[in-house]
Amino acid sequence: MNDIEIINSGKVISRIVTGEWISDILPQLKGYRKVYVIYDKNVSALAGSISEMIEDHYPSVLGGMMGIDASEQKKNLDTVMGICSFLLDNNADRKSLVLGIGGGITTDMTGFAASIYKRGVKFAFVPTTLLAQVDAAIGGKTGVNFHQFKNMLGVIRQPEFTFICPEPLETLPQRDFVSGSAEMLKTFILDNGPQNDRYESACHLLEKIHSTPDGVIKYSTRLLPFIISAAAVKAGVVSRDQFENGERRILNLGHTFAHAIEHLSAEEETGQGIAHGEAVAMGIVLAAKLSAALGIANSHLPERLARDFKRVGLPCECPFPLEEMEKAMSVDKKAEGDKIHFILPQSIGHVVVKDLTAKEAIDLTSGGTVICII
Ligand SMILES: NC(=O)c1ccc[n+]([C@@H]2O[C@H](COP(=O)([O-])OP(=O)(O)OC[C@H]3O[C@@H](n4cnc5c(N)ncnc54)[C@H](O)[C@@H]3O)[C@@H](O)[C@H]2O)c1
Q1: Prediction pTM value
Q2: Is residue 307 flagged as an active site residue?
Q3: Which of 15, 122, 249, 259 does the annotation list as catalytic?
């Protein structure tokens, strides 16, 4: 399969490489002095087999392995400092590659640590969740949570490559798979493909996977092209606007609401709560309600989206009164002054950007005449 390239000023700044099997990653690891593997402890078997392959094919290149706990609570500077200490203790340098294996939490922290260690060393990702394959591991946004706020510290710096393969998804818990479906569907709401049918086809397949035992294993061959399409849409947007000065904002569809939902749902002890993708699904329905209240979307759109999300197993009813979300939305990283760029779906495949205060958005969303059917 051809690589998907992320291009900036005519130069390839990152690549998305796809493979049928995990061993297809090997050619990508050639030529580095050392490879350091940072992995989510929940995918230690996968990380172990990649490390063994490195040792077999490139003797003495494996610089070390470090397992981390992938939780929102531990997505913080302490963990990143731990990764930096590991890299320092094992003599990582500018000719090394830091390979992050895991979901979005792992790739965000690995990329951030590699970006600040020695002012930046090379890194690459093997995303092991659907969400990370279609979104988190593409585009170079890396970072950690800070003072209860998601991804408040971070940088934009591109991985050498992101290796996408359906194999790791086979061990993913169902809730995490379904959560990733939200980012895939979000991408197709932004860009429905040349035939204008990607969103509906993806809903159909995700519904089948959701309702079939071992659905991911059974349908992985059919799933891969959708993962690749979603990754390609994101790669295209990032190529045109790496630093989010304009078009890249559309990728935040549903995210202003979602981050507030995640913030409010996070338990103080564990930091766990509503999963990112689940919050994104709720956020997209709220964005559609806001869009309908502004007369941008047809009044049926929020109901349609809610119905589709439910088909694939996503919750889409926000459990918090909207007024409670206003404060959390006001600290959105994307806010400029008191205005936030809201991405509003107009129809499947089309979105518009509208600048509103959190209060305006909440008032309009709750005052809209459209009622979510779920
Ligand atoms: N950088 C970006 O552009 C970007 C975009 C979207 C989301 N994110 C971030 O991504 C994070 C969410 O990512 P995620 O949903 O991938 O979560 P995650 O990394 O927390 O993974 C979800 C859970 O699945 C486990 N897991 C991962 N892969 C597995 C596998 N193959 N088999 C079994 N268990 C596995 C993890 O240990 C974890 O418990 C959030 O922190 C979010 O802020 C970043």
Answers
A1: 0.94
A2: no
A3: 259
